[in-house]
Amino acid sequence: MKNTWIELDLDVLRSNIGTLKRVLSAGTNIVLVVKSEAYGHGLCEVARCAWNAGVKMFAVAHVDEGVRLRSILPQAKIIVVGVVSPDDVLKILRENLVPLIVSENHARALAEKAAGQLSAVQCHAKIDTGMGRIGFLWESAADVVPRLSRTPGLKITGLCTHFASADEEESGFADIQAARFYQVWKSCREKGMQALFRHISNSSGILRSATWDMDGVRPGILIYGYGSNPMDRTVECRPFLHWKTRLLQVKAVPADFPVSYGSTFTTREPTRLGTIDVGYADGYSRQLSNKGVVLVGSRRCPIVGRVTMNLTVVDLGNDSEAKEGDEIVLIGAQGASSVWADEIAQWCNTIPYEVLVNIRTDARTGMALRKQ
After folding, report:
1. Same domain, 185 and 264
2. Exactly one of 35, 77, 113, 244 is catalytic; which is it?
3. Residue 319 belongs to a domain with what CATH number?
4. Which one from 2, 39, 186, 261 is the annotated catalytic residue?
5. How far apart are CA 359 and CA 347, in angstroms?
6. Is residue 341 a contact partner of residue 352, using CB atoms and an 8 Å limit?
7. 261 belongs to the catalytic site
8. Is 353 one of the catalytic residues?
């Protein structure tokens, strides 16, 4: 069996949720983003814990994620923030999922399928206020969305957008996006669309401004313990995913000993090398070759040589007492030492989102849930 697994400290997740609740405006709901296996943490484990901590609304990327989530949380409100195919309308209706409509053609295609079932799709209209991905262009949305609200087979119950740059030092463009959204919402309300559930803030939007809380916020990376740099608000969330493996072999080697493919590392002095049971096939990036650090016996030990498909070599140090079978921390804490996904992301010239979602699913088959 593969000796690589994930542990979740669910006490930390509960604490993060409580911290966020205390910061949000009265009446604002948390719409917890659990897409892509809850950012690599495990959709079902995170969602169950969040539900028990008082979160009743969730966002997923695809219908199949929504179906999985519905199977464990029959009473939850589940918003599908990707683009739903008309072919999935029967699943949407059966599972009581809330898709986004992103264009007039898309909305009418969903409506036609639902009307054919003598039903209506409850949906939220996505407004493109400047992100440039999906949604009704804000200039025309104020006319198109109210017209669509009268379409048989559609029940538009919410309005949303997505910030492109609320995490930047200057929030000017986010302010523009929020103003555009407000104008669309105001026009929709004036044209008879009442009680729309409004949600525009992602993690960075939450940190940027309380005026954007509205009816709901969509925390993603923030609730997983990353991206909580202080802006207008401070939300102290901590990481709770720990990714671990084991030492497969330990050997003493002399100076000038070459390591791994291409011999890109050669020992400078006698040392002990440890081979660990993880590689880029598991999502441990090849870019960590000769850059990364893992925790062994509460010490930060460097990756040496190239990360390979299934195995990686660590310089344990000549005085190391580590032995085969010892637990190694890839992400997390051990004693007073730690290495988290944001530090790994810097070594790989990427973002912690990518580090977390790249963890292979088979690592979650051995998932352990701690401090429940």
Report:
1. no
2. 35
3. 2.40.37.10
4. 261
5. 16
6. yes
7. yes
8. no
